[in-house]
Amino acid sequence: MRLLRFLLLLLVARPLAVLMTGADVIGRERLPLKGPAIIAANHASHVDTLLMLAVFPSRAVSKLRPAAAADYFLKDPVIGWFSRHVIGIVPVARSKAGRRAAEGEDVLAPARAALAAGEIVLVFPEGTRGDGAGDAMGQLKGGVARLAEAFPDAPVIPVWIQGAGRVLPKGASVPVPLNCAVLVGEPVAWTGKRTSFMDALREAMLALKAQAPPLRWSEDEAEAP
Description:
alpha/beta, 9 helices, 7-stranded mixed sheet
């Protein structure tokens, strides 16, 4: 199954992501080749996961485990099989209709297990997709800090993905091929306190956003003679 996933990622998922996004990658050399490691990226589209699988080095892509909402990706048997065995998601339970997860349930247990197994966990600290209109970043949730606290020696790599929200906006079902950019920052060290760590992570992600180059499909360029 591991070999099948590797082949499908390289022969299907990666070419599809490149076709849809033509992603420019800045700082690719900062992506970890082994775990335990944590990738923390902004989230505007389901394309984000596919995009990260596409930009990772081939020798490390099989170790990348995207954290994803169990209620969304496992609700259909076919999508669930593909999500688990090809995309390799780490299923995370989330509250429904404002209800919290069951008392005593550790929703991060699958992510902890993946890190303990030496894998690379991709998390989207915003917890849900934005509207994608302006690549704005929402409030970061504390799950990534809990993982960093549990694995203080694991590097936490900030990533800014620009443009994926316009390739496949929230609520859309058909992607539109457009250029995107992926910026990879220096690791954010665990500070010993969740609040200061989250502040440092947010600052690092916003710094990457500020460095993002103009995308080739920007409105300004479209209007240029």
